[in-house]
Amino acid sequence: MMSWLHPGFILIFGALLVPLFKGKWKEAYLILPPVAALIVVILMHTGVFGQIPFSTWHLPFLGYDLVFGKVDNLSFLFGLAFTLALVPVMIYSLHVKSSTEHMSQLIYAGSALGVVFAGDLISLYFFWELMSIASVLVIWHGATEKAHSAGYRYILWHVAGGITLLAGIIMYISATGSITFNAFDWNSDSTFWASMLIFIGFILNAGVPPLHAWLPDAYPESTVTGSVYLSIFTTKSAVYVLARGFAGFSPLIWIGAFMTIYPIFFAVLENNLRRVLSYSIINQVGFMLCGIGMGTALAMNGATSHAFVHIIYKSLLFMSVGSVLFRTRTANITDLGGLFKTMPLTAVFCLVGAASISAFPLLSGFTTKAMVVQSAALGGMGLIFVLLLIAGAGVFEHAGIKVPFFTFFGRDSGLKAKDPPVNMLLGMGIMAFLCIFFGVYPYPLYQILPYSAAAIYNPFTIPHVMETLELLLFAAFAFFILHKTGIYPPERRTITLDTDWPLRVLGGKVIWFAKGPLSTFSTRMDNNMKKIAADFSAFGEEKEERVFIGVSVMLALLFLALYLIVEISYNWIFS
Amino acid sequence: MDIMLAVLALLGLIGYVTLFLGTAEPRHRYGKQFLAIFAFTLIVMVIVGLFVQWPIEFAWQKVNAFYAMFGFAAFTFLIYAAKGLRLLLVKKEDYYEEKGV
Predict the structure, then answer these.
(1) Interface of A with B in 315-374 (CB under 8 A)
(2) Whether the model pTM is above 0.95
């Protein structure tokens, strides 16, 4: 039996060697760490490192036993999803020259794998924070003023979330004495508050409104390839930790359902395509959280498999929009349209991704999302079922219609962009293949689902296919009517205010107050205090005459005071 | 998965793509034909739907073409709701820059 290699460490240490290579050698080298990580994960499944579950890479730390390698069916599934997506994403980004950009992206991916395989809360926290730092570097590589400030706001959100998580972890460890990362006990009084703090730390990374504003703020500001990486790791590692720690936590059902609806309106109004897709991440993660909240085997399998295919089709969508941005230098709908004639391959790949996220039969979203919706029906949750159906129409609206239609069809913008370089096309091609593969033949995915694999789900039934097609095609018909009649809101050069508005405006006011009134006030106070201090110090420093004068004045005052006291006491006693 | 399902699913995808091709401007040479195919897929879905044995988890699933009506209504509702929110939440592109935050 071979000894296990941590796939996350392969990526992180692989990243450190990137600057040593140049030109073609660099391109050849860059593909190695993702492929090696994927091979390690596949070997895990074949039992080369021992039967799953196993636990390895122990490290003593402050009297605790840290576990970097805890592999069970759940962590294996997410590890596979991350590494499987990483290979085509790396192919897609091979043309990027900047070593530091590749390094930050690889370290980001590696730390997400660190989170997935962490067996204890301390190493989980370590990789969680490493992921935050690496991801902000990915954002800052956007190298614009907007990217810089959005990255700054992003790290503020994540520092807040990280501190909440750390506080929760410390409280949890001191209450239970154990650092093992398993399902949290939110029912017991001693661990309730600790669990809730950890929960808040987790859902901030999952992008749950109102703690989501960092996501649509920062993701669209990164580079073409950076956004693809960002769309994969942070939110899905949060889904993983919630699936492990909070399965069956019933508030997640409502949180998830709310999360599927809330971002739709913003996505409808948004002009920037990458921001539309960022909102759509929140919508999709909502389905996953809803399933985790239900906690049944079918719902959990739905949530985790949906995360798996979501990683693939969402990165495909970000890649195709990224290709348009790469060629036309814009991702604003107001500037785009009609590109299917000049970018036909990108258009086809985008349509595959869009149809997948909309859950068209024969494409990947169809085979997974239905498990969550079906669980709501089986659990008799009528309102949740309806909300998820509405969300299904909503995701079709913004990701299924808006993104491909206004980019590649719609009104012809006259832009004459061609398809992107061959490495980008290859990356998208592999992703599109995976979307179709898991849509037509989902059984390999079903077999590795973590919860009771015996009950294999069958999505291909006549009612399921028909309800999906009726819903989607008549939603498309509604689009046709609204678009023709001009009711569909035309795109304008605008932004949409979100939950970070009060923070940004209030933050701006605080800074204005500090720069203006507060600093004027403190300058004045400072000057006055200096004057008083100078007068006092004069006693010690200046000439003797002044000291004598000072002493005389003080003595005179003292005698005056004494006289007054005697006089008043005398009058008071003898009057 | 049997042939019938595969045909229906492919028809759905064809409807999806023909809507785009038929609605693009300036109008495609075969724009009208594309839209005709799209309309054909809608009709097929409704007719096939009449013969499907729907699972009845909730009372509303007994209604004929329930999902078709639901899809149409949900989509329209979302667009109108978003248009309402537009008045409240949409600002100029440089809103935050002007405020310096």
Answers:
(1) 338, 340, 351, 355, 360-362
(2) no
